[in-house]
Design brief:
mainly alpha; 451 residues; 15 helices; globular
Length: 451
């Protein structure tokens, strides 16, 4: 009988990347659909409603970055322990990560809920936008624990190469979310119309459902990984270990989300129409670069497992293949987006021609740099899997600094207005790619041992 190939550690590198990355890309695409569905339905309420959701998103992302970094640290350790064949520590890493991230998520939920209106008041003085944005953000904070519980489930499953099941769960909840959004937003029978708040409430319900399913699966012990009660009691050594790896990743995510907040401040100088266009363009950008994010996670999974197994040559082959796939895939996506920018923007906000024109221009300018993003993400995933989370953090900060500085210089000093902001995106992406490639070429990350 022919022995089954472990695609994490053997066989064709290209095939391994595709087998791991495609389900991850599909799952991440479906998760982004949560936000796109919200934007689609909210767009039916008008410009102010779209602006309200757009203002809420960067603040929510900023305050959840700490939990995301810790989840990533757990995923790195799970992958390397799995590469060594150490099932006991795979389970322990899963339990400790779940306990730590849950604690952080609950704390941030409380802080975020209580400070929502205060934080948003710095971004807008429009009372209608502020009221809707506050309600949307507060409900989103209540949903945070459910969201991050499912993130832990996904991270654990990806670390052991089981990537299809999370994709199926996300598909089910996204379909459910699409039908719940208009019901809660416009009302139906005994359910009162709740507007923007209804959209957030629908997402909350589906986030908690997916979290419950994920916890049940992990607790069942299937797929060579088990969430055990004894592993949920936090241990000082593991808190230190996860924090050492995770805090730089948290700061990496934070730097990007801080950049989003700063960019929102800059964009807000030019009025509500520009803010709405920026919100639509930003969400489309996040949706379109999902292949790059999926590739980064897949590369990280494969590199982590192969570093754990001390297969350095295969690790290098994975990184090189990831770069090629990232560049050509996202370049093709960028070309397609460039050609269809107006149609995509119209889909989200059909009755606002000025916003459509501005957002379409933003999308076309960003699309020119998608290939650079693909290369950078594949290499960042490689460095992160080797435990170089501080370096990944520094690279993210560099990219954010470039984006903010070029935006201000081009928009204000050269008086290009919002066009200067749009142009800063491809410039920052190209410079970040070059610097990331430089550190990858040093290859000192190959000797980094975590387990």
């Amino acid at each position: 009988m022919k022995q089954k190939i472990n695609h994490l550690l053997e066989g064709s590198v290209m095939k391994s990347i595709i087998m791991i990355s495609v389900p991850i890309i599909l799952a991440n695409t479906l998760q982004s659909v949560y936000q796109l569905i919200d934007t689609f339905w909210v767009g039916r309420l008008g410009e102010e409603a779209v602006a309200a959701v757009s203002l809420s998103f960067p603040i929510l992302f900023l305050l959840t970055s700490f939990a995301m970094g810790l989840a990533m640290a757990g995923s790195i350790l799970i992958a390397q322990y799995n590469g060594r064949g150490d099932t006991e520590h795979v389970c322990l890493a899963t339990g400790q990560t779940f306990a730590l991230v849950s604690s952080v998520a609950i704390f941030l939920s409380i802080i975020g809920y209580l400070s929502s209106e205060f934080l948003l008041s710095f971004l807008t003085d429009d009372p209608t936008v502020l009221k809707d944005a506050t309600s949307y953000l507060q409900i989103s904070f209540i949903a945070m624990w459910g969201m991050f519980s499912f993130v832990i489930f996904q991270s654990a499953m990806r670390g052991v190469g089981r990537v299809k099941l999370p994709m199926i769960i996300v598909l089910i909840t996204v379909i459910l979310n699409f039908f719940l959004d208009p019901i809660f937003m416009f009302g139906w029978k005994f359910i009162p119309p709740m507007g923007v708040s209804g959209v957030a409430l629908a997402t909350l319900a589906t986030e908690y459902l997916s979290a419950l399913i994920g916890i049940i699966i992990l607790a069942s012990g299937k797929f060579h990984i088990k969430l055990r009660l004894q592993d949920l009691w936090l241990r000082a050594s593991w808190v230190k270990r996860l924090s050492k790896l995770g805090l730089p990743s948290s700061l990496e995510h934070s730097s990007r989300s801080i950049g989003m907040v700063i960019m929102t401040f800059i964009v807000a100088m030019f009025g509500t129409s520009i803010v709405a266009a920026f919100g639509i363009g930003g969400r489309v950008l996040m949706f379109i670069i999902i292949p790059g994010i999926g590739l980064s996670i897949a590369t990280s999974t494969l590199v982590g497992n192969n570093l754990g197994a001390k297969q350095h040559q295969r690790t290098l082959e994975i990184a090189r293949a990831g770069m090629k796939i990232g560049f050509w895939t996202l370049t093709a996506v960028g070309i397609l987006l460039f050609l269809t920018a107006t149609q995509i923007t119209t889909f989200f906000i059909p009755d606002e021609p000025e916003v459509i024109a501005i957002a379409s221009r933003f999308i076309r300018i960003m699309a020119l740099s998608f290939g650079f993003i693909g290369v950078q993400m594949a290499l960042t995933g490689t460095l992160r899997a080797a435990g170089k989370t501080s370096l990944a953090m520094s690279l993210a900060m560099f990219q954010t600094a470039c984006l903010v500085i070029f935006s201000l210089v081009l928009a204000k000093f050269f008086q290009l207005g919002e066009l200067g902001i749009w142009i800063s995106y491809p410039v920052a992406n190209f410079l970040a790619m070059l610097l990331t490639y430089y550190f990858y070429r040093k290859k000192d990350w190959l000797q980094k041992e975590l387990v």
